Amino acid sequence: MTRRAQTVPYPLTWLYAPGDRPRVVAGALTSGADIVIVDLEDAVAPERKDYARSATADLLSEPDHPVPVHVRVNALDTPQAAQDLAALAALPGLSGLRLPKVTSAEQIIHLAETTPPVAPGSTPLHALIESALGIEHAYAIAAAHSSLHGISLGEADLRADLGVRGDAGLDWSRSRVVVAARAADLPPPSQSIHPDIRDLEGLIASCAHGRTLGFLGRAAIHPRQLPVIERAYLPTEAELEQAETIIKAATTQQGAQALQDGTFVDAAVVAAAQRTLSLARRR
Fold first, then answer.
1. What would you report as the CA-atom Rg of the chain, rounded to the nearest whole angstrom?
2. Residue 17: beta bridge partners?
3. Is the distance from CB of 256 to CB of 264 less than 8 angstroms?
4. Could you tell me the sign of the dihedral formed by the alpha carbons of 175, 124, 54, 38, in that order?
5. Minimal CA–CA distance to 69: which of 113, 121, 16, 120?
6. Collapsing DSSP states into helix, strand and coil, what is residue 38?
7. Where are the domains of the chain?
8. CB 3.0 to 4.6 Å from 218: which of 3, 96, 122, 229, for a disulfide?
9. pLDDT category, 2, cuts 50, 70, 90?
10. Helix (H, G, I), strand (E, B) or coil at 70
11. The domain 13-233 belongs to what CATH superfamily?
């Protein structure tokens, strides 16, 4: 199946748009987001699910879009999820399926191996982990199947499930998902949404914290959040200079060494520097 809109290397911005509002989806496609996620789940009222699915099918029947289009289907244990998959999974404009409220590897395996349109090598799957049970099974989910291309958190549902009030109460779960993704050789997870679209200072601080935990990029619910997220996750000038210095040192002298500023350079440090330079050149 041909996917005309290719994902940029190291996507940093993932913009949600409600599936029952085609004009909003159209705006999202030209917003500057790296990936647009058409939401059929939380953003759509029950009585508008059928319309959202039909409108999304119309969108995805056309293969050409400015950026890749993913769809968040309804929860896998609902009848709507099966209807979403049957209607959308084989359409040429679809670049990925986001699976909400995943709690086990078996869900991923069942979907990947028993739903004909979603076969290995076709539509990438992305699991959203949103409960304590999902966190406990994070690595098993991440390593479940070759069709799974990523995992991330749904923090609103997870916060409610855990009864967590302060933001710091989610940090262990965040780190668990980052480690699970790396252990399963998946890309670093993107952060969950920042729900207050007016609180850009809070978004900046939250993204900075996410970087320290190992996240890469973030989901957004409004276009005004996109440049904030991108700036937060792109390397700084100082980081670029340091990476270039490390790469230069590694090409002129083999083996572990110390730079003039005392930085110890070995293979792992060189790999991190290479990723920094690749991220800066992602477009």
1. 20
2. 38
3. yes
4. positive
5. 16
6. strand
7. 13-233, 237-280
8. 229
9. very low
10. strand
11. Phosphoenolpyruvate-binding domains (3.20.20.60)
